[in-house]
Design brief:
The protein is of the alpha/beta class and about 325 residues long. It has 10 helices and 14 strands. It has 2 domains: about 200 residues, Rossmann fold (3-Layer(aba) Sandwich); about 110 residues, Alpha-Beta Complex (UDP-galactose 4-epimerase, domain 1). Helix 1 packs across helix 7. It is globular and about 55 Å long.
């Protein structure tokens, strides 16, 4: 029997790739998105409902119109710096609006929830790579809002039996290998698209924030996970809930770290173009290394990332940038 999935934030970067994958798996997909950070033309199929999680009447409409087998939630605000200057906006959208969604799930007896969480819940790393047992000490409202929801989910399970899997991403990157979808944030804050925009001359230069970290080349090391691998983990997590497994949380990453300079060097090789660089000061709150230990996800979900090479991740992102970058 065909499963029906609600994808909240399905017009955004990760959500749109997830919708494409769910459709390929034969699911009926319903996207709920207010298009504040997403694009209607990024939703490649299924049913689209324009709406906001702040609107409880809209949620009633959606949950009455469909009988959902699961909900995936990608509709959070994600900019760390903005969360520091506008904490209320982040707590309202990322926490209060998520409560509205959870209440609707309880009201309409939907039991399976996949939550898009983040490595930002860990704060400053005490050890690298970071596994699921690492202390949770978020250092900004964005990370704190996600950690609040993770804890709230435990109480909802106790009260109503709503089971959930929280997936803590490190750095989602790359684009749909078919070239249909890619990353388009305004403003863009992620390193790989910023570097490629500098290569395509949509941006004058790329700034390296700090060159004196305790890393081989002095620049920060981050873990980049291909968007399709990320979505594959979500699909497997939802299947795990359908199979009766308990609520849990997994870290998702490549398990490999790449420095800022490595990203720029590989981007130069992939594009064959110069990438102007400016050296800037360190940014507050930037750890030298952030790398995931994703062994639990691999062992428990049977998940194995396919696109682990930095060159592949950047090649897919570059194909998208070349084809679509100047159109929006």
């Amino acid at each position: 029997m065909k499963k029906t999935i609600l994808v909240v934030g399905g017009a955004g970067y990760i959500g749109s790739h997830m919708v494409k994958m769910l459709l390929a798996q034969g699911c009926q997909v319903v996207v709920l998105d207010n298009l504040s950070n997403g694009y209607r033309n990024a939703v490649l199929g299924g049913d689209f409902v324009f709406g906001d999680l702040g609107d409880k009447n809209n949620l009633d409409y959606v949950f009455q119109a469909y009988q959902f087998d699961g909900v995936m939630h990608f509709a959070s605000f994600i900019q760390v710096g903005e969360s520091v200057t506008k904490p209320g906006m982040y707590y309202q959208n990322n926490v209060a609006n998520t409560l509205n969604l959870l209440d609707a799930m309880v009201k309409y007896d939907v039991k399976h929830f996949i939550f898009s969480s983040t490595a930002a819940i860990f704060g400053e790393p005490q050890s690298v790579p970071l596994d699921e047992t690492h202390p949770k000490n978020p250092i900004n409202p964005y990370g704190l809002s996600k950690w609040m929801v993770e804890q709230i989910l435990r109480d909802y399970e106790t009260a109503s039996g709503l089971r959930s899997i929280c997936l803590r991403y490190f750095n989602a990157a790359g684009a749909d290998p078919d070239g249909e979808l890619g990353e388009r944030h305004i403003p863009e804050t992620h390193l790989i698209p910023l570097v490629l925009q500098a290569a395509s001359q949509r941006r004058e230069q790329i700034t390296i924030f700090g060159q004196d970290y305790d890393t081989p080349d002095g620049t920060c090391i981050r873990d980049y996970i291909h968007i399709n691998d990320l979505c594959q983990a979500h699909w497997r997590a939802l299947q795990q809930l359908w199979n009766g497994n308990s609520s849990t949380a997994y870290n998702l990453g490549n398990g490999e770290g790449f420095s800022v300079r490595e990203v720029i060097d590989v981007a130069k090789q992939v594009t064959g173009l110069p990438i102007p660089i400016v050296e800037g000061q360190r940014r507050e709150g930037d750890p030298a290394r952030l790398v995931a230990d994703a062994q639990q996800a691999k062992a428990k979900l049977g998940w194995q990332p396919q696109f682990t090479e930095l060159e592949t991740i950047i090649s897919h992102a570059w194909a998208w940038e070349q084809q679509h970058g100047k159109k929006w």
